Amino acid sequence: MISRINSVLPDHLTINQLINHLGLEIEEHRVQMPDGHLSQHPHPVALGDRRTQANFQTDFSESQEELVTDPNDTSADALNQLHTLQKTLTAQLAPDEIIWPLSMPPYLSENDLTYLDTHFERPWYGEYRRVLIDRYGYYQHIMTGIHVNFSLSSDALSWLTQNMAYQDCDAVYFQILKQVSKYRWLITYLFGASLVSENQAADHLLQQRPDLTEPVRSWRSSSVGFDNYADIQPTFTSLSAFLQDIQQLVASGKLYDQSEYYGPVRVKQYQADQAPAKTCVNYLEFRIFDIDPFSTDGISPRALSVLELLIFEAIYFPEDKLETTMQQSKANNDLVALQHPNVALPTALQDEFKHLLAHMQALTDLVDDDAQQQSWQDAINYMTENIEAPVSTLSQQLLPHLVANSLHDFALQRGQAWKQAHEN
């Protein structure tokens, strides 16, 4: 397989030049000190009109800021811009506000719920929001996370379709979608960071699993976290079938529109008048990361390196007949997400992990850019450290900060540290 990879890469196109654009989106709540309840201060006017300001949006609640980078050439550039956006947001916070650095929201009192219900300043989003409340309740949609937007360069797509038996560009993207979805459990294992709910007693989604005792690795990434109901399962036989299933779910009323599909990877399509010949995929949106409270901006370079390695592993080591394994892969992710952070992966998943690492190492060895190779090798070393036991996964690092089954005090301390870091 190494020779096959080498045969695909022309002299002028090395693996570290395959990315066209990478962008980041982070959802995060403003909270008010000293108690850490969702902020009731308005969205800062200085951040611009939310109808037109691309970098500063809000989501389900007025407190739920959404920072969106532009498309960047590299993950490092995207992280640098995210840091700048975080600093800009911090400069506009009220004196008693900080950013809540966890995916699971703080405790919501009845006053908080009333405020959520009665205060919403984006009427163009109001109908959809009401549908979501009726369908899922309040708690699911104030969970927050990181989305990574990704596209390949035109040169890379051209070479892949000419040399690796991909029928067209859409086939390349669909292979990535399938394979990263299948191995989503790896991201959950390494970077799951939503151990407990501060609203366990009131959240009807979490009450569906009374058999579980917190902490778990990631409530948000589980089937009782930020997920659709079990009957929302598009097929993975082809891109057209996948997209058609989602369209049919919208037509039937099970989804409000395509944005209500909460799978791990979402297809972003070209508009009809923008679509290049024979392609409909503009980019892929990966929706698989919890907020990392130990990283000042919510996601680490290492996490992005692991995702890049998963993407390129999918391209260069494609697997066939994934449809038969997709249901099992969803169950695998749920199992990993709902494990105690101290529990090791099942032996079968450890074996898959080692198989993936061998492929990833082969890719890393081909990179001719020293910085890129170092970042990928660091990611591989981190993964290797955690194969047989969770030594330094995010959930494992969070465990010592649990007090009375809550991360509330830790979140306030980290939120204040974030604020100080972004003020400097």
Automatic annotation (TrEMBL):
BP terms from Gene Ontology: glutathione biosynthetic process
Listed GO CC annotations: cytosol
GO MF assignments: ATP binding; glutamate-cysteine ligase activity; metal ion binding
InterPro entries hit by this protein: Gln_synth/guanido_kin_cat_dom, Glu_cys_ligase, Glut_cys_ligase
Domain Glutamate--cysteine ligase: 21-251, 256-333
Keyword flag Ligase: yes
SUPFAM superfamilies in the record: Glutamine synthetase/guanido kinase
Keyword ATP-binding belongs to the record: yes
Pfam families, A to Z: Glu_cys_ligase
Pathway given in the UniProt record: Sulfur metabolism; glutathione biosynthesis; glutathione from L-cysteine and L-glutamate: step 1/2
The entry's keywords: ATP-binding, Glutathione biosynthesis, Ligase, Nucleotide-binding
Enzyme Commission designation: 6.3.2.2
Catalytic activity: L-cysteine + L-glutamate + ATP = gamma-L-glutamyl-L-cysteine + ADP + phosphate + H(+)
Protein family: Belongs to the glutamate--cysteine ligase type 1 family.
PANTHER family, sorted: GLUTAMATE--CYSTEINE LIGASE
Name of the protein in question: Glutamate--cysteine ligase
Annotated organism of origin: Weissella minor
